[in-house]
Write a structure and sequence with these properties.
7 strands; 3 helices; 44% strand; alpha+beta; globular
Length: 147
């Protein structure tokens, strides 16, 4: 598998795990990463897991009843340094008992990656790029306003 595919697969794995409600596995993807969340930055999987557990509504089916769709990845790789960046778009769809299927938010991810032992991993993610906000009341346990 080429490097660009491996990196985009990490983006898609994130979406797959989040939509499955496997917050522990999602957090593990960011084990050695710095994450910008609004005005703050955290490092590692433990604070991200705590943040998701406190803020993401998980339904009795074990999932948040969402589909994260990640598109338009622009991957730039520095082969010599073993680093890469990726800018992408995301749209989150949700259908819940009190919410018909709809897009609930959209934004951008700005990610950085590093290659360790031949494998790519997240080294940084900027979560502050939320562009469009719909009805997040059935997804998040906190109010969120557009940026």
């Amino acid at each position: 598998m080429n490097d660009a595919t491996a990196i985009t697969n990490l983006l898609y794995r994130y979406a797959e795990l989040m939509d499955a409600g496997d917050l522990e596995a999602v957090a593990a993807l960011f084990d050695k990463a710095r994450i910008k969340t609004g005005d703050a930055e955290v490092e590692g999987s433990a604070p991200m897991l705590a943040l998701w557990r406190a803020n993401v509504r998980i339904y009795p089916c074990g999932t948040p009843r969402t589909k994260h769709v990640i598109t338009n990845p622009i991957v730039e790789i520095d082969e010599e340094a073993g680093t890469a960046t990726c800018r992408s778009y995301y749209t989150v769809f949700q259908a819940a008992p009190d919410l018909p299927l709809q897009a609930i938010c959209a934004g951008r991810y700005h990610d950085a990656f590093v290659r360790e032992d031949g494998q790519w991993r997240f080294s940084r993610r900027d979560y502050s790029l939320l562009d469009l906000v719909g009805d997040l009341s059935q997804h998040l346990l906190i109010p969120v306003a557009a940026q």
